[in-house]
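Internal ticket #5521
Category: modeling
Description: The requester needs a full-assembly model to guide mutagenesis choices. All entity lines are attached below as received. Residue total reported by intake: 851.
Assigned to: D.W.
Attached entities:
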Amino acid sequence: MLFNSYIFIFLFLPVALIGYFALNKMEKPKLAKAFLVLMSLWFYAYFKPIYLPIIVGSICVNFGFSKLLRSEKYHKKSIFILGIVFNIALIFVFKYLDFTVSNINALFKSNLPLQHIIMPLGISFFTFQQIGYLVDVWNEETAEHDFLEYSLFVSYFPQLIAGPIVSLSEMLPQFKDEAKRRFDWDSFTDGIYIFSAGLAKKVLLADTLGKMVDYTYPLYETLTGPEVIAAGVLYTLQLYFDFSGYCDMAFGLARMFNFTLPINFNSPLKALSIQEYWDKWHITLGRFLEKYVFMPIAFSTPGMKLNAYEKKKGVKKPQTWTVITMILTFLISGIWHGANWTFILWGVLHGFVRAYQHIVRKKRNKLPKALRWITNTAFVVLAMALFRADSLTQFFTMLGRLGTGWGDGIRIGILNCFDVMELVYIEKHIPALFVLSRKAPWINMALISALAAFIALVPKNLHEKPIKKNVLSAIGIFILFAWSLVSLSNMATFLYFNF
Amino acid sequence: MNKTINPKKWGISVLALILVFVIAVGAAVIYVDPFWHFHGPTAGLSYPYLDERYQNDGIARHFSYDAVIAGTSIAENFKVSKVKELWGYETIKQTAASATFYEQDGYVRRAFSHNPDIKLVIRSLDATRLVTGPEDESYDDIPKYLYDENIFNDVRYLYNKDVIQRVTEVINYTRAGNVTKPMDEYGVWYPYATYGREEVLAGLIDYSDFTEEVMFDAYADKMLAVNVERNILKTAREHPDTEFIFFIPPYSAAYWYGMLKTKQLNYTIEAYKLAVSLLLTEDNIKVYDFSDMVDITTNLDNYMDTLHYGEWINDQMLLWMSEGEGELTKENYEAHLDKVKEIYENLEYDYE
């Protein structure tokens, strides 16, 4: 089930809220948690019921490992390694098996059969979350918790399929807090506010930009330079509004239940460096990778030995291992994002640029902010264009098209993707605007792109400022919600006339 | 406006506004019902014809009829008044531009589900739709939520900004003094068409790359047979008392020229032969072919492009079909289609 769906808004959410708070009101906190777990499993199984045994199995096995880790005295390390291997194997089978097999086939000219396994939604998220959990148990950083609390921690629907990636220590105190079991208008209305803003980001902005991107990418062999740039820039904005909108919805939903999820986005497109970008984009993935990947590699024995060797050679501040670690971490991030060479190259590129900016940081920090922003954003957009590509061939073909067609501009088919009903309606009823839209068919694209860029770059992040509850914000949130609601479904245009 | 209000009051106000909005929009869509999903045309309102894929099911649901015309753009210009005149049946159109056989059959089946007493079905046999998958559709986002009895998915119709816009269109259309047009004008494109040789020849392409004969192989044979079985014969068999009329349209000679140049003439004729042979296995199916009407097909003033003829040709076809002119039988269909092939192989084209 998606947050931006009728069934979620009209049925699932009201039932979940009423059921959860009613059971708590009846002094049945355990039942309330169990209810939320069951609702979350319904939420998950709604995509495909076959996914259900996978997540339930994963929860049970991981909790079993954690029980063993906490009780066993002599084989802790083996159990811990087995637990990590189990999770990696699970994600490998569902996400990377076919990719690996097809690469082996390509490399060795073999003909191993592909399994065509359908990847369960959110497997990357709930697997990473549980790997982090096992590490925390291993490090004895987790408080006492039972199976129900653990199940809720993994399956809690607002963060289940697209994050944020939370740790048990963030959620457990909230699950145990009796005060949080009572319905709270302040928290609930914060939730409505943030959910509606997130819904609008996703439905009104990301989906509109997505239409253009989906239309443009398959034309990669014939794109002009301006079209390639527009596709890269607008995909960057699409993904930002899509994912940050989703995370806002998740955050808002959790607030409705009186819980607080970590903030996952903080205006990342304002970043001046890749380090700052990753401090602001998908923050919980960044901190996961830092804690569970970067740090263990950075402080591993080979790293320490290399640092010691460099120091012995007279290097005051050894950098080699740090650079290797950065690239490795981003490589893992790339692999995590998807089973395709595009993601791997995307990760490696981010790693190299991150490392490069780290090495030259003193010189770079002296450059004007505008220059740092432009160079950093240009790289982010370039990497995003790669992230969206179906294959490396598509990406490099698009790059090759950059120098072409500068006199031709952007074709009408792409511009038409921005003829959203609202703008067309306004233009139809205001003659001057109608004339303008005919004379300058790019006007709708320019308006929507400018609005998206403005929202991404200028105002403060939603989470940075206090939520004002006044008449104006009530009307504003109502309009955003209602507008998004009626935009969940639209009519297709069946233009094809022949045959 | 900027004065802070307490969260409870704020929350109740927002929820109340949402509730009022949901009720008001839902009520407006149900009352006007621009696609006649819940009921027929509301008394006092006039409806513009909008999009066939959205309105077909509503028409099949709420209109009274004895006959159905289904098909693609080559059937859209048929006039139901002509069917009434020639056969005596009240008729609805269930056409949709570019519809596959699967879609066309879907409309016919939906019509039967609403009205089991249909006496006559007229459908087009488009050359380009013969060899397709049995469940192929022309578009990904066909509004299936309108084509079923599931009330829960109607939410996609009720809370849909495009539908809301259609509601306003109905109201504006009514206010402007318009009336709902007769079914003759449903789905038609002829008012916007420009006909003539120049228009038609503009659609011809450079054929120099087409050097290899396209074979009607076993794969195409199987695809076509499955397509015809599932999307024509099955429905015809389930409704033995209904007469099904299929027609091969009189595509322009420029179309056949294209087939010849792209080495697909033989393929098309073989495909038609197989389709017709299968159709004629059912007693309640009749097939007509007007491809050999060279007076029509070589006069490009009858066409807006290589495929699409003017509405006067649709009128003429109905007349011929009602009179049995151009009917294919088990005995004559092969010779007839061979003749069509021969005609267009030997025609002296001046399209270069």
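Resolution: model delivered.
Comment from assignee: The radius of gyration of chain A is 25 Å.
Ticket closed.
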